[in-house]
Amino acid sequence: MHKTPGQLFREAVAEEQPLQVIGAINANHALLAKRAGFRAIYLSGGGVAAGSLGLPDLGITGLDDVLTDVRRITDVCDLPLLVDVDTGFGASAFNVARTVKSMIKFGAAAMHIEDQVGAKRCGHRPNKEIVTQQEMVDRIKAAVDARTDESFVIMARTDALAVEGLDSALDRAEACIEAGADMIFPEAITELSMYQKFTERLQVPVLANITEFGSTPLYTVDELASVNVGLVLYPLSAFRAMNKAAENVYMAVRRDGTQKNVVDTMQTRAELYDRINYHVYEEHLDALFAKQKQS
Ligand code: PYR
């Protein structure tokens, strides 16, 4: 029988330890990630803000901004997609419910919801504020209750380490699991041994966010496996590289009056067509018109 995105995500977590989850900023990158062999992809909230809207990761984006990118990715790529829904896009349990139902409807496999206040900040920036443990537990209860597909994964993210310390983060994670969270994402971890504290205490998969230029050292898959981390996230690695490449091209064309000096840094037309199956679409069109001509 056809597997749901949530089932595919859970299977991948069970089979690849830890599961590498790679950020895909758009549908094209989702296809590139699949081609590279990844079994799960990620839509970053900071990425939607910066990439789709040109805005900082400060709780400015809304549900529809994220859903647009989710739909575009799931329309062309069958890899299970983990989506960052920030604080749930609204204070009420009904807002959280609407977010969960929409994610499922638009083909996401999993989502993570966090315990920052609505006016959130990037997890790796100072001056974060978090809601009470009870309010976070209520967010999880609302999310779990709203699921229209039991396999859809609800991941609880806690930003408590930087605000209240490790014990609070551990307590919050445990409380979220009791409320029905399937997986835990402790944000902005600073030492490998901290992951071990989570994995020893919790019975569900724990995600490590290995984002560049942040608070967490760039631990390898082997290092994270040694402390039983279940998933490794690289939210914006390709996005950062893509942006640097684009800046380089813009500067060169403007400076040199030609792109000739940077052509060798570009994906070729043939490579692009290959990555998006251009020829398959074209052949389909030709066959369709040929049929029409015959009839
Ligand atoms: C982000 O990339 O936006 C995360 O929250 C990890």
UniProtKB/TrEMBL annotation:
Enumerate the CDD domains for this protein.
ICL_PEPM (cd00377)
Q: Which cofactor does it need?
A: Mg(2+)
Under Enzyme Commission nomenclature, its number is 4.1.3.30
Look at the named UniProt entry and state the broad enzyme category this protein falls under.
lyase
Which pathway or pathways does this protein act in? Answer: Organic acid metabolism; propanoate degradation
Q: Which Pfam families match?
A: PEP_mutase (PF13714)
Stated name of the protein:
2-methylisocitrate lyase
Supply the source organism for this entry: Pseudohongiella spirulinae
Protein's gene:
prpB
